2-Methylisocitrate lyase, PEP mutase family (Muricoccus roseus), 291 residues
Amino acid sequence: MANPALKAAFDAKRFVVAPGIYDGISARVADGMGFDCLYMTGFGTVASHLGLPDAGIATYTDMVNRAGRFAQITRTPIIADADTGYGGLLNVRHTVLGYEAAGLSGIQLEDQEVPKKCGHTPGRRVIPAEEMVLKVKVAAEARRDPNFLIVARTDARTGLGLEEAIRRGRLYADAGADVVFIESPESEAEMVEIGRAFSDKPLLANCVEGGRTPILPAKRLEEIGYAIAIYPALGFLAAAAAYERAFAHLKAEGSSNGLPEGESYGFGRICELLGFPEVWEFDRRWAVLDK
């Protein structure tokens, strides 16, 4: 079942900030921070799972298995990237049912051609709007829990312009999307225009460090009409930099000794994060019977 807290946050007009999660550690850390929502990033999940670009290579099975695992180890509602729905209308239905059954609270579907590409990289092409409308209608009909949200994304801005992107967003909202996601606006003025066009639907802002869209403060995003801001890349960008610093120290020193304070999470802390104290308590309680 979907967590009703996310829909309730939107209904209450509470602005939602969602960090990107991509593996078990990022999911557990983010889950403990008090966010209203977590966002399973396709870019980060594909990178961490396969070590490959987010370019339509990952399958439905790859993604639903990872998403379901994240849902099992967290309490915070999760919206998960599902690319194009992994095929035609029957695939979209299967994907929605699978993501919902996995324990997620929302699914993001986009109108790119297959194979899809990351939204802040070049070369994206979109399918006809009418085809995506059908996908959104199928997705809305397929879900069994009204708290499970359909996020409809259009990548039309980069290739076809802002006017077409807004037109598509409007069509997808009318088809049953709960949240509208206009990918890659290229200025604050464009974001203001998008906000004016969707006063009746929650709008999603994709905040990618170094991406095409300016990153605005939460207060400003709320002022211009957005309801949720996702930060899909923040976690894995920070983690990659931390890996590089730690491994460079090891290479230079031949040891992890002397690693600057704050550069390591600490073994005791990571054990606690991952739930080892519960394992140790279980072992203590059942030690006699286990011999």
Summary: The mean pLDDT is 94. Strands lie at 16-21, 38-40, 78-81, 106-110, 149-154, 179-182, 203-206, 228-231.
